[in-house]
C-alpha cells in the first residue's frame, strides 16, 4: 500500500503543505511517523537532524543536553551558543541559543525532528523553551514534532498564525485541537479502543472522581442522542426517578468539571445539551471519537465498488482498532457494544483477506483470515476460506487441520456438525 493512500499526503503534497512553515506537527496518536520521516529524509537529506527523546526525561536540561550531544555526533562543531548556556541558562535562553545555532548550519534547509516528544514534561519550562526556539530559528529551518500528546499551548498560536502545518489528520472528521475557528472551542479527543482515554486541548483527563463519571462520559460519547429514561435504565434501573435524577445531575456536573479543568479559562464546558427530550452533543466543545472514525471507514469500505479504496479504508479501520472497546469496563452496555465492534473488526479483517485473495496474495490473505477467526471463531464461512487459501498454497494437510478445528469448535460451542458445504470442501481434498 502506498504511503499517500494511508496518510492522504503524497510526497509532493507533503512538500507543498510544509513549505514555508516554521513548525510541522504530526497529529497526536498518528501511526505513520516513519512515512513522514522518510519524506524528510528524501526532501532534506543532509539538513535533517533527528532526535528521539529517551524515556523518563524528568527535566528540560536533561533532554536538551542529550539533544545537543546527539547532533554533535553528526555535526561535531555544532551548538557553541547552546553549550555556553547549558548549565546556567533559563529555558527561554536555551531555546534561543539552539535556534541561533541552527542558523550556523551550512545547508539550504534544516529540519530539527523531535520524536516521542510526549516523553518530555509538558510544563512551563517546556513551553518557554519551544517558543524561544521557534522564534529564533533562521528562515531556512523548521521544527518537526511527533508526539502521542500535544498540549494546546504553544502549538495553537503557530497554527492560527499559519506558521505551522498539521499532518496526519486526513481521515479525521476535523482537525481537533488544531481546528482554526473564529471563536476557538475546546477540542475533546476520545479513544475508546483499549482502556479508554479522554483528552481536552491535548491534556488527558486522569482524575474522574470515581468510576461513575467516567462511565457516563463514555456512554454520552458513544450515544450522541439519548433520552433521560434510556440513561436511567442503563445506570440506575433500581432507583426511583427522583433519586436517579439527583445522582445523574451530580455525575453530569463532575464530567463538566473534568473537561473544564483542562481549559485555560473560567468557563464551564458541558459535554451535552438537552433539547426536545434528548441529550445531545454540546456545541461548546469539538469532539473526535475513534470509534466513529472506525465505523465510518468500514461503512465506506462496504459500499465502495473500488477495490483500492476498500483496501485503504479497511486498513485504516484495522489500524484504529488497538484493543477491544473499553476492555477494563464490565457494564452490560459496554459488553454489548464491545461485541458489536469486535464483529465489525472481524469484517474489516475479512474484507482485507478477500481483497488479498483476489490478487492471489495468499500469504497475506491467510494472515488476515487467521486474525479474523480469533475475533469470530463461529464464522464457518471463514474457516472454509482458510481451507481454500491453504489449498491454493499447496498445503492440503493444513486445510484438513482447519476443518478439524471447525468441527471441534462447533461441537464444543453449539453441539452441531459442519454444514454440507464445509463437508464437501473437506471431502474434495486429495
What pattern of helices and strands is seen along the backbone?
HHEHEHHHEHEHEEEEHHHEEEHHHHHHH
Mean pLDDT: 86
Q: Which consecutive residue ranges, at least 5 long each, have pLDDT under 50?
A: 1-8, 170-177
What is the CATH architecture descriptor of the largest domain?
Answer: 3-Layer(aba) Sandwich
CATH first level of the largest domain = Alpha Beta
Total helical elements:
18
Q: Strand order across the biggest sheet?
A: 2-3-4-1-5
Rg calc = 26 Å
How far is the first residue's CA from the last residue's CA? 36 Å
Structural class: alpha/beta
* Overall number of structural domains: 3
Strand fraction equals 5-15%
Biggest β-sheet: count, sense, barrel?
A: 5 strands, parallel
- Gross morphology: flat
- Helix coverage percent: 40-55%
CATH topology of the largest domain: Rossmann fold
Number of beta strands: 11
Describe this structure as you would to a colleague.
With about 425 residues, the protein is an alpha/beta fold. The protein has 3 domains: about 5-170, Rossmann fold; about 190-290, Orthogonal Bundle (Arc Repressor Mutant, subunit A); about 305-425, Tetratricopeptide repeat domain (Serine Threonine Protein Phosphatase 5, Tetratricopeptide repeat). The protein is about 50% helix and about 10% strand. The protein contains 18 helices and 11 strands. It has helices at about 5, 10-20, 35-45, 60-75, 80-85, 90-100, 125-135, 155-160, 210-220, 230-235, 240-260, 290-305, 305-320, 330-360, 360-375, 380-390, 395-415, 420-425, and strands at about 25, 50, 110-115, 140-145, 165, 185-190, 195-200, 205, 270-275, 280, 285-290. A 5-stranded parallel sheet has the order 2-3-4-1-5, with helices on both faces. A 4-stranded mixed sheet has the order 8-7-6-11. Helix 9 (about 210-220) crosses helix 11 (about 240-260), helix 12 (about 290-305) runs antiparallel to helix 13 and helix 15 packs antiparallel against helix 16. The chain starts with a helix and ends with a helix. Residues about 1-10 and about 170-175 have low confidence and may be disordered.
